[in-house]
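Good day; I would like, with your permission, to put a structural problem before you. What I wish to show you is a protein chain and, alongside it, a tokenised description of its three-dimensional fold. Please examine both parts with care and let me know of anything in them that strikes you as inconsistent. Thank you for your consideration; the sequence and its tokens are set out here:

***
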Amino acid sequence: MPDRGGSRPSRPRRRVGLPGRGRRRTLLRAAAVLVVLIVLLVFCSGLWTGWLWYRSVGYSSVYSTRLWTRVTLFAVFGLLMTLVVGFNAWLAHRLRSPLSAMSEEQQSLERYRDAVARHRGRTLAAVALIPGLVAGATASSAWQTWLAWINGTSFGTVDPQFHLDVSFYAFDLPWYRFLVDFGFIAVVAALAASALVHYLYGGIRTQGTGRRFSYAAQGHLAVLLGLFVALKAVAYWLDRYALAMKSSSFKAADGWTGLRYVDANAVLPAKTILFCVAAICALLFLVTPLRRTWALPMIGLGLMALSSILIGAVYPAIVQQFEVKPNEKAKEEPYIQRNISATRAAYGIAGTQAADYASNSTPDSAVLAQDSTTLADIRLLDPNVVSPTFEQLQQQRGYYSFPTTLDVDRYPAAGTAGGTQDTVLALRELNLAGVPQNNWINDHFQYTHGYGVVAAQGNAVDPTGKPVFTEYNLPPQGALQPYQPRIYYGEGTTTYSVVGGTNQEIDYSDESAGKDKTYTYQGNSGVSLGDPLTRLAYAVKFGEPQLLYSGAISTGSRILYDRTPQQRVQAVAPWLSIDGDPYPVVVGGHVEWVLDGYTTSDGYPYASRTTLGDATTDSLTSDSRSTVAPANEVNYVRNSVKATVDAYSGAVTLYQWDTKDPVLRTWMKAFPGTVQPYAGISADLKSHLRYPQDLFKVQRELLTRYHVTDPAIFYNGSDVWQIPTDPTSRTGKSQPPYYLSLRMPDQKAAAFSLTTTFVPNQRDNLAAFMAVDSDPGPGYGTIRILKVPTSTNTLGPVQVQAKFNSDPTVAPQISLLQKSGDSTVEYGNLLTLPVGGGLLYVEPVYVRGAGVNYPLLQKVLAVYGNKTVLAPDLPTALASVLGTAPATSPVAAPPTTPPTAGAAPPPANATVAKDLQDAQQAYQDSQAALRKGDFAAYGQAQARLGAALNAAVAAEKAAAKGP
């Protein structure tokens, strides 16, 4: 009987085991193919949707230029690295010595040589391709450096040490350093690959007696080492120029940049000597194949190392210790002057106008008369406080919201011909958290946009403390009509929406009709979803399969995404840094977002560096309002571009604002046709442009030290300022700058300005007041500083707030406003204004009453000199602290409609209409009196306003009861 137990086990292994391994191998291959296909699908969908998006906004050239630049750099440098490494690995193999007696070391390497021999082509490809791919990816990320170099534009300014145009440091030097760094990596990779091959084939031995290197291996590696040292020589030469941008710790200034005495007189000569030593050392390596000895190059290498220590480090330290320190001030003064001049030029503060300001304790009547416009335009409405008030009174629907911080702009003033007034405004943006029922259709097809502008006068409130709305309600009413009210693009719009086609989107709920008012998008924004491949690409992009097969998508449907203004501008202008505060304007029947774009550089010689994120942080930047690319360390910045984003169509337009900026002109050459000329800015849009906050914050941070132009005083640090902390905030951060209209002493009329204050270092009294003219025109961007004499000990913002809290007449009244805890007091922005030859502080006081979840302006605090007052309104406060006759306080009465100025809904009857007309006239009279500085007339008009509103309320109640 056959032995079945012995014969059967072998057969299943042949028949079942091998096919099993084959199936597993097939499954693995299928899984690998599937993974590759998924990766390709994701990659290709990203490329395709990116192209579609850029084409939809009209900036396809930006996409193609950036893409092909990156692809070209990847291909060129990746191929170059592959060739360098591959050639040297191949050459090392060709130069291998025939193996004779096999040592133990060589015997242990035999199996590796056999493996290489069997797969020589694959091994060589792997050795060469891996560093090539890494190098290509690294080079592709340097696309901006390449474009800046190839399109570089002259600054027209030379540095004082090497007398080279600034463009060399800003555009040329970064690219040269990239090339040198790439050369180092390529040589090191080639050296490693060559050494490995030589070792594998016996050209390098680590054991045994005799020569450690074959002549072929020695010559090959010596040439590579010579190239490395030659590159080091080039690096030493470039380091000479890099000294002009060297950062160092220096007590004269944080972020100090540029050569100091020791750099110019010790480090610079040392770099030149080291360049020569490295060049000689490289030659010694290159002649090694002829002499067949390491002696000379090793001597040169040792000399180079010793020189770098003695000449590059020890000698400069000796010069610093024994020549500079004993007389540092005199030695460093010329270099401090270079730093001061370069820093002020690089940050646009060279033209700052500084003047002494007496800061009188009592107002000069003649000067006070000239400041009547400033007094009339004092902005009481704090955009950082009244967002809850706007939301309570004008949100209208739960799926709308306002930003935490509102915006300030200028619009025509009521009752004036051609005059403007500061206006606080915001857009009703979409808030998906307030949608009655969240689901995919509601969130992406039904609730797709915000609706309307809400605006209020900045310098007035109604008798109850509510804002005086000039644009309000749904549908929108007021002074800004007509315009397209739908807001498809906004700061809070972060999700995608599908619009158009047969889709009926919700504008707002029409309560009078008992149904939703719907709308179908008529614009051409976004990307059409008519193509199945496009729908597949977006399904992959957003991870939403329903985009591929949903019946809610019809012919004409379009997808909108990347909808915040910052996203859109950053995408079409990746070379810009974007201001953290976009603001909406109503121009030409459209709502446009305005954004300020900055061109920056870290290559301006001698200009001190600053970090954008640190310099632009204040008590209001804890939310989403932060500068794009906040970590960038720069030493040159210009507000070179004004950008707009249409809130309805999403159209992005870039305008050239600084026509002289060489960095902008460089990028305009790199991306031709993307930036419109300055002349393309309409007069209507130009009237709403303003000086940007983030640039102002950077400049004020620099001016804490660089207001000093005397190098001796700068060195001593005896006149250093700092930005005061925000006295109305608990964050402990800097006080933000404020937009308001005011007249500086050398100006004939008030101008829309951005203002801030300074205090001495580690003290709280006032050191200076600064304002920049923000109205486009001849004076735009002029920075004026009023220096307060230190002998006067003028109160700073923190001291003024402390005075409010401790004043024996004010503090009890503040306590009464809180009504034993039933109400909460909120302080508005503490404004500082130069008025009457002195400084006036004004701060609105808001109260959240019991059961009221939004603040109302109830009081006004004011300080001038030694006078402190808490008054029911601004005219009374001004009359008290400025020494004029007190004005009559207005009668507090709730209004019947959101505004007390502008168009109102039709009244219930003729009596109400007449009362509202009287209220309107009284309001206009009060504003006219305020502009003239006639506080008594203002009080009388406000009294008439209150009486008219009370009469309107009574008439409306009577009409509601009926006969």
Notes: The first strand starts at residue 247 and ends at 250. The mean pLDDT is 86.
